[in-house]
Design a protein that fits this description.
Two copies of one chain form a homodimer. The first copy, chain A, has seven helices and ten strands. With about 250 residues, chain A is of the alpha+beta class. In chain A, the strands form two sheets. In chain A, strands 1, 2, 3, 4, 5, 6 and 7 form a seven-stranded mixed β-sheet that branches. The longest helix of chain A has 18 residues. The first copy, chain A, is elongated. At the A-B interface, strand 1 and strand 5 of A face strand 1 and strand 5 of B. Chain A binds a DNA duplex (30 and 30 nucleotides) through helix 6.
Chain lengths: ~250, ~250
DNA sequence: CTTTGAAAGTGTGTTAATGACACATAGCTA
DNA sequence: TAGCTATGTGTCATTAACACACTTTCAAAG
């Protein structure tokens, strides 16, 4: 990795980075992908962070975010959306942060403003071993995430807020589910994101009214209860709905 | 102005700027504050742009945006909200842009990513003469704005989009009106922002139901028609509504 | 001083969306 | 074959959204 950095060092912009809040769903809880920098020498605690990197001077911000995602998950063409810029001069001011930066960056003291993105990935598609990015990486349930490096906690809150607002208006949740899924899984997903219970029947009615789900001639197998109908996301009707501005929607 | 820049040159970050899309309302149309760089030597046309500047290394992004606003309008504590970061490597690639930058910046060729903000100002409070910022500055009706310098056209669109989305959910329009205003003025404002007609009676009902307007014991005077009731924005009830998440709302 | 023009202000009926709520069904397992 | 577990389904009451037209008040003009 350091070889890579050296080769491109001239193009690395020391002042601007991107950070990616990557959400995943395991049919039970909402998760976030975190990297681990290893143990801090001073505090002895591990530093968890959201993946991110300085940008290259010849790439757009979106390209940088996609690159980070690709490097980390190996996945291309993921749902990705900008959250905003974070630029407190002291955002990397903690001792343990500085320590980490020294081992990582050519100019560890440079002022860095970061542009945050959030992305939704199908946990199935992502193989955690594929990471060539950090010492280790893994999924953490959102509810169990405590302190993070830099201002990443704030970034995470902000990204989660944006996801909540967004999913109330625009059906983007499918990006977190496998291609074939059940309505209960979708229901659970919405409850996890919005962090509140939703009435089952009303939820089904609303989602089905959108006409963006295609029922398949397939059912769950091997479950110890009534097997449920599988559905597929219907890209075509979604486009139609999208062009109308997702008006008849709301949770 | 160049003296100011020289004094603080060491602290200026060459890679990050803020740009402020400043909206105003003249009781008829939505306007945007633009600065004029003077005539380009190559194209002979004037370069209009949204006000913006490189940030100092010891200020937050919000502070930078507030500073730019202060320098331009003399007004403090204005409604201000981040729109997002814009970072296309070619965003300042036009010849006329480069020409302008050379006259303006210590490192005119540096890659600059910019963080856009939008703000709402009461046009009454703003004295255009007060500007110490650009060769000239003035209000332009949104509908008449054509090409702008850099990627400012895109930034403007984006800010306007955010304003539209926001005002549907959160009653922030009062920031564009004087302290005392009529319902018709507010009505017109909403129509201008959303760029579509809204039914008068339904509009009045909805706004009044929010209970964030205090009717005053005052009426318009000197108008050649039935004088209308004046209202004032009620900060206290707004806070109450705010804490409930602005649920019962929507245009 | 009467007429005219111009915007303010006001209420109802219809339709669509929302939210609350309970029981029968299908498949697996013990 | 009895029991467990999650699926799947309909109605009613309430609330929000939308469409729509006439009277009132003032100033200005004649």
């Amino acid at each position: 990795m350091s070889a890579v950095i050296k080769n491109k060092a001239l193009e690395l912009n020391p002042n601007v980075s991107v950070d990616c809040v990557i959400f995943g769903f395991d049919f039970d809880q909402l998760h976030c992908l975190l990297i681990d920098s290893g143990l801090s020498k001073t505090t002895g605690r591990s530093r968890l962070a959201v993946p991110g990197d300085l940008i290259y001077d010849n790439e757009t911000l979106d390209e940088a975010a996609n690159r980070v995602l690709k490097e980390l998950t190996g996945i291309n063409n993921i749902y990705l959306e900008q959250v905003g810029a974070f630029g407190d001069p002291n955002r990397m001011g903690k001792e343990s942060d500085k320590e980490w930066l020294k081992s990582l960056r050519a100019e560890p003291d440079a002022r860095v403003i970061t542009v945050a993105y959030f992305s939704l990935v199908k946990m199935n598609d992502f193989n955690p071993e594929a990471s060539s990015f950090a010492e280790s990486a893994g999924w953490a349930p959102i509810k169990e995430i405590d302190e993070l490096a830099f201002d990443h906690r704030e970034i995470l809150e902000c990204a989660l807020g944006q996801l909540k607002r967004k999913i109330k208006i625009q059906p983007i949740g499918f990006n977190l589910l496998p291609q074939k899924f059940t309505l209960s899984q979708l229901h659970k997903l919405y409850e996890s994101i919005l962090n509140k219970p939703l009435d089952k029947r009303n939820f089904r009615r609303k989602i089905l009214n959108l006409k963006i789900l295609t029922p398949l001639n397939e059912k769950q197998v091997g479950v110890p209860h009534k097997p449920s109908q599988l559905f597929e996301f219907n890209e075509e009707n979604y486009q139609k709905l999208s062009s109308e501005g997702f008006d008849n929607f709301g949770f």
